[in-house]
Amino acid sequence: MRELNGLRVPAVGFGAMVLSPGVYGDIDDTRAETALKAALDAGATHVDTSDAYGQDGHNERLVGRAIKGRRAEVVVATKFGLAIPEGEASRSYPVGYAFGELRVNAEPRLVRRYAERSLRNLGTDVIDLYYVHYPDPGVPIEETVGAMAELVRDGLIRHVGLSNVTAAQLRAAHAVHPVSAVQNEWSMWRPVEPDLLAAARELGVGLVAWSPLGNGFLTGTVRELGEGDFRHNAPRFSAENLAGNNDRYAPIRDLATRLGITPAQLALAWLLHQDEHVVAIPGSRTPAHIEENVAAAGLTLHPDTLTRVDEALGGFEVAGGTLL
What we know:
The chain is α/β, with parallel strands linked by helices and 324 residues long. The protein has eleven helices and twelve strands.
């Protein structure tokens, strides 16, 4: 278990986004619930979702069904700000996906409404870790977090989280109410921002790495994408860029083979060695892969291995840019 500023979670949790259709292609709810229950059985009891994953709260409702009867053993994390109520304004948040932007509204007056909707979807009376999904360009982060603090006071949420923020935004938010975790992209092919890591360490805030396997790339198995795969929107997964990135990643795959572990396990173990307060939330639809991911938390990498990984990554520049 690892500490996220007052919240204890397993080192490897579970990112549930992949369980909704339209992420990595079609999937039915039966298969999705089987995968999520396999994650819980394997010990990945920190489950991360969002009101924006799937249509009309699909992912949250799926999580709610899967954890029914097991709620006490699960740390439920969800996010708000992208599934904007009809008729409300929105502001543009630029991203590196092909569609160019997300629409965001994290106005304080909507925060309770978002939370109550998520509570209904999840079938629970409290959210363990509640994130603003993206900072709203039109709203100071302090104001959004002030409204989240009221939810803590009223018992609707237990811990405040921030997602996709800068070091300055973390500091401003933490001055209003203690932040338990920051969730940002962090993996072998997307380093965390050094100033964000420094701020989190200074403030005692935990780090939750989304896409710790590079949207599946770091498993070493992605050669092409199927129809309906959301990754078609990411330039790094275009046919040309994907082929080049796989070539550049070969030394890491080879090192994993020599160590007798999978590339995914090496990627996760390397990440967990970067800081004692970082946790990973990989997603998978396959129980065997889920168990493989969770087992990575038990791996200890020799300092020489970490050096070899860092040297290999030093020559690995991702073609296609970043997502944020």
